[in-house]
Design a protein that fits this description.
Blueprint (H helix, E strand, L loop, with lengths): L2 H24 L2 H29 L10 H36 L4 E5 L5 E4 L1 H6 L19 H9 L6 E4 L7 E9 L3 E8 L1 H36 L6 H31 L8 E3 L1 H15 L6 E6 L4 E4 L1 H17 L6 E8 L3 E8 L21 H7 L5 H11 L3 E7 L3 E9 L3 E2 L1
Parallel strand pairs: 7-9
Antiparallel strand pairs: 1-2, 1-5, 3-4, 4-5, 6-8, 8-13, 9-10, 10-12, 11-12
Length: about 425
């Protein structure tokens, strides 16, 4: 039994004894004991009233004069209040320092509540995003940044990658947005000024496109003369072999230039080609004929499975180029007399174009990087096949234009399956 409880029981016993002794003399013990209990209750009610008045009127002041267990309760409440106040002040200090630190950042930092409304932002956000603290606080962010791409990104994600867009408040500037969820669906938005990076990227694209374009004409002339010399039967064997090798390398360089030009076109933000419904049965039959003519000496079995009657909305030339890149890769890396299956199918959510082979396969560590430009699993092997190292990069960019993704499943010495996945809204009857 605690000391305070013992003291309170002794106090109650003392009060009852004080009232019980006179009652014994006057033969009214029960009445006076009951009166003593009322006095004891009144003392507690008086202490409770003092405690309530203190908590309501002056909780930051020292507690009133109390006794017994009420004094201990008041002292504990006062101690807890001081500790809470100290913790609150420490927390406010941490928040103030954090806000000062965030305000010093060059990146725009914006806190957005679970309803999508602006809660707080640093000074960089006012400069970069044009927010005004006196009128924009509490407004939905999508009412300020109204770009449809940003609205889709903000409302639906995914947030694994950032979003690059022209600045809505400053012409000729570009901003990258990155969103992170926290708490109860609150969001943290970080925005970067990537104008310089965008300009450098545009310079790179323009340089590649211009150089590739300028190389096309001289390469065409060189290829023409080399083909003429290589086909001349009067040349000595040594010279004929040299011209033949030069012709092969000129052809390879020409293919590289054509692939670079196509990549530059696909990357251009100004190219918005109209999507039309593509007859996939007809397209796959054309691809089968092209595949059979690509390397007939290997005698591959080219199979076509059409498991869907739906057509695909897109740019036929670009999709044909992407699909043909996947098929020619399968031909290059599948030994003679292998099997290659081209398939078009769909389910309730997606449409699938896939190329499956039983070739040499790919090690797992290479798969995430296959769509990078000029990435080669084996440089010697790729050179022997005459590849440019841009085929899968072209496939990736074509699929981006059609809101599709590329899935790769491969096992060494068993084979590979490359699958282009298209959203259901890209399919029509």
């Amino acid at each position: 039994m605690t000391t305070l409880l013992k003291q309170e029981l002794l106090r109650l016993a003392y009060i009852l004894l004080v009232f019980a002794i006179p009652g014994w003399f006057f033969h009214i013990s029960l009445q006076l004991v009951f009166l003593g209990l009322l006095v004891y209750l009144g003392l507690h009610l008086r202490s409770l009233h003092k405690l309530h008045h203190w908590l309501k009127a002056n909780p930051t002041e020292p507690p009133p004069e109390l006794s017994g267990i009420w004094e201990d309760i008041a002292d504990n409440i006062f101690r807890l209040q001081k500790e809470e106040l100290k913790a609150k002040q420490n927390l406010l200090g941490i928040i103030a320092r954090a806000r000062t630190s965030v305000s010093a950042l060059e990146e725009a930092v914006v806190l957005i509540d679970s309803q999508g409304n602006l809660e707080w932002w640093n000074s960089a956000a006012e400069k970069l995003l044009g927010f005004k603290s006196d009128i924009d606080i509490g407004k939905p962010i999508i009412n300020l940044i109204r770009d449809p791409s940003f609205i889709r990104y903000f409302e639906h994600g995914p947030y694994t990658e950032g979003l690059r867009l022209p600045s809505w408040s400053q012409p000729n500037r570009y901003v990258q947005y990155e969103v992170t969820r926290f708490g109860q669906n609150d969001r943290l938005l970080i925005a970067y000024d990537i104008t310089r990076l965008h300009q450098l990227e545009q310079i790179r694209k323009d340089f590649v496109a211009n150089v590739s374009h300028e190389l096309r004409t001289p390469l065409t002339v060189l290829s023409g003369y080399l083909e003429t010399f290589a086909s001349n039967e009067e040349l000595p064997p040594k010279w004929a072999r040299a011209f033949k090798q030069m012709e092969q390398q000129a052809t390879r360089m020409s293919n590289l230039v054509n692939d670079l030009l196509m990549l530059s076109r696909l990357e251009s933000d100004n190219i918005k080609q109209e999507h039309k419904a593509i007859n996939m049965t007809h397209l796959l039959e054309q691809l089968r004929l092209d595949a059979q003519a690509y390397d007939p000496e290997k005698q591959h079995a080219i199979l076509v499975n059409i498991d869907s009657p739906l057509r695909l909305l897109g740019t036929e030339n670009d999709l044909r180029s992407a699909f043909l890149n996947l098929i020619t890769n399968a031909i290059k890396y599948t030994p003679a007399c292998g099997a290659i299956t081209i398939r078009w199918s769909n389910d309730e959510k997606y449409g699938y174009f896939s190329v499956q082979d039983n070739g040499i396969g790919i090690e797992p560590q290479h798969i995430p990087r296959l769509t990078e430009r000029f990435y080669r699993v084996d440089a010697a092997r790729s050179s022997a096949t005459g590849g440019t190292g841009l085929g899968l990069a072209i496939v990736k960019h074509v699929l981006l234009q059609h809101k599709g993704i590329l899935n790769i499943n491969s096992k060494p010495n068993i084979g590979s399956t490359f699958t282009c996945v298209f959203a259901r809204e890209s399919l029509v009857d």
